[in-house]
Every structure is written in C-alpha cells, then in structure tokens.
Amino acid sequence: MAEAFAAVQPLLDEYADIEHQLADPAVHADAGRARTLGRRFAELGRVVAAHHVWEAAQEDLTAARSMADADPEFAEEVPALEAAVEAATETLRRILIPRDPDDGRDVILEIKSGEGGEESALFAGDLLKMYLKYAEHQGWKTEVLGATPTDMGGYKDISVAVKSRGAVQPEDGVWAQLKYEGGVHRVQRVPATESQGRIHTSAAGVLVYPEVEEVAEVPIDMNDVRVDVYRSSGPGGQSVNTTDSAVRLTHVPTGIVVSMQNEKSQLQNKEAALRILRARLLAAEREAAEAEAHDLRKSQIRTVDRSERIRTYNYPENRIADHRTGYKSYNLDQVLAGDLGPVIHSAIEADEQARLAASDD
User: Pick from 335, 312, 314, 334: which is nearest to 323 by CA?
Assistant: First the structure.
C-alpha cells in the first residue's frame, strides 16, 4: 500500500492548505472562490477520512501481530484485523480514482422530441414529469428555463435547471447522478393518437450539461453571438405575444444555437438563453478535451435516433431496460413516478467498475 500512500500524501497536503485558506475571512469575500474551495474541501474530506480509517486499521493489525506470540487472544484477532485492513485498502483505492471534476455541479437538462411526432412530444412530457418527481424526492430545486409545448400537452423541447439545496458531497451532486441520463430514450406503447390499439415505438432525446456557476468561468464575447428576436408562439404556431420577446442566440464560432421564449420579457429570455449557452460551451470544451485524450466521448449522443437508444420504456410489459448497464425491471410505473434511483445506481456502478478496471491496467 506504499504506492497508495504516496498518492494520498499530496491530497492530504492540499486538504490542509484549503482548510487554512477557508479559515481566512478574506476568502469568503469572494463568493465564487469560497464556493470552489468548499467543493474541493468536501471532495478531499472523503480521502482524508478513508486514509484515517486505513491508518488506524494498519496500526491495530501491526500491534496485534507484535503481541500475538505472547498472548493467544491477540493472535485470534489477527484474521479479523487483516480483513479490516483489506476493506479499508479497497475503500481508499476506490476513493483515489479521479472523480469527474463536475460531479458536485448543478445541471441544465434538455428534453427534445424526436421520431414519432406528437407521440414523441407526449413522451418528452412524461420524461419531464419523471425527472421533476425524482428531483423532488432528492430534495433538489427545479426551474423551467424554456419550453415549446404542443397542442396535446407534450413538448417539442424543454429546458430545466436542476439544483441541489446547499453544499453537498461530490458523489451526491446533481451532475454526479443525472449525467448518465444523456442519450436517446425509446418508448413502446399504444399512443393516445392511435385508434387501432397498435403499439408504436418512438423516441425522445435527453441532453444534460453541468451548469456554469460563474460568468467568468465561461466568458462569452458577445461579438461572437448573433442575437435574433421574434414573437413568441404557442401550440399550433399561434402568436402568444404582441412584442418581439423571444430570443435566439447563435454562437458563431461553434454554431451552437439557443432559443428561448418562456418569459414575457426579452431581457429575461436572453439571460436564460445565456445560461444554457454557457453550459453547452462548457460541455463542448470538456468534450473536446476528452476526445483528444480518450477518442470520442460516448456517454451522450447528439441525434434523436431510435437505433442509438440508451434506455427503453415498455408500457405494455411495465418494463424499463437500460441498454448500457443491462439493468431491467418491471416497475416502469414507479420509475415514471420518480423512483429512478436504482436505474441511475446501475449506471454509477458500471462507471465505477470501468474506472477501477482502468486504474488496474
């Protein structure tokens, strides 16, 4: 375990340094810096705690072994203490695997209808309700940033900000859990628009981005952004506003386009669109870095194509299946009501196993 200890020591030193910085009142005058330091301090706290447990287990085992020859009772304790050291070593090894630096962040979640027309839009609405219920169960806050509803109550697209309440451990962060939701979600059911009772297959796409906390974190040169304004429209395309309050932002260097018409104020729509644009730019920046280091990122897709599904929701069988992890359950009604935890846990577990395997190579 000497190698592991060598990897731990710089983290212990960093923890002590941040603890010293956070004790300085001047640091808290800069809310952004204090929040960043606090998040890192919480992350390193897990390492420090696991290391203390490992050290204590090692000391107990060493003491028992040294006295085993003189006292049979200590010899009897050795196997249990060896098991404790092994467990503490494995825990520390897992914690030392680098985490996604965005795990503690809040997210912006976008749901878009795809193949299937109105049925796909209705399914997008069902996914929205599922995520809102799951967020409620987790104690998170949600805010609809923008939506394009359809005549039957579905959504062509909708954007939602999901935020934790207060400081959380990185593994409990919103991004740490919802990042696995990005991809194509396929539904199999009898649509409300179907008169013959036939089962149809359609799809909706989910995109998840870690939200940018500070404007300075992802600066946007407004000279690179084309701003178009137009009148908001509702289901069926009818105008719902007599002023040009809707806003479309086009980031010319990347081609990213964000449209927002949820608010009556042009300024409010522009601010909401900028929040989403910053999140998308951060995601694109991280994705490009990952692609350069690890080929192409495959955790999310960019097209709503049924053949690229990550999950299937089968209503007739009340079945949900995640095609990345092999998870399958026959409680779709409960999942849609917000009981999404076991599905997400299967993705977290698969990701952790992959990172453990990579660390052993």
Answer: 312
CB 163 within 8 A of CB 140: yes
d(CA 101, CA 114): 31
Within a domain: 194: yes
pLDDT tens digits for 153-178?
A: 899 999 999 999 877 777 888 999 99
Residues contacting residue 316 through CB under 8 Å, at least 6 positions apart: 188, 189, 190, 199
pLDDT at 216: 59
> Residue 277: which H helix or E strand, with range?
helix 266-294
Could you list the residue range(s) of the whole structural domain that residue 240 is in? Answer: 107-355
**How many structural domains comprise the chain?**
2
Q: What is the pLDDT of residues 49-71, one digit of tens each?
A: 999 999 999 999 999 888 888 88
pLDDT of residue 295: 44
- Distance of alpha carbon 305 from alpha carbon 196, whole angstroms: 25
According to DSSP, the residues that pair with 110 across neighbouring strands are 159, 207
